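Everyone, carefully examine this protein record:
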Amino acid sequence: MATVAVDFDGVIHRYGRGWGDGTIYDEPVEGAFEALRALMAKHAVFVFTTREREPVAAWLRAQGGFETTTRVPGRFWNQRGVLLVTDRKLPAIAYVDDRAVRFHDWEQAMADIATFERKD
């Protein structure tokens, strides 16, 4: 079974005002819960975040009705049907992140990073 990693802020949580005071204040990104359910039907899925894990897990339970855990059972996550919320980068076949740069070579990566810098 393959594992997919999904970032929380900007991918699941709309994150319209940035970090702010650290609370989870916004609505879900449109289609996020449906996409998570579709992924979970085929893959083990974990949510990665720099936030405290328990509030994120509670938000996912309350807003989306997901079964969640914050307990990482080891080096891998391979349980389907339960969302793991973690601050660790675990092995996965794909990482869904709104701030990611897909690496092909360093010239392309540096050019992509420069586009992020222009947005600040």
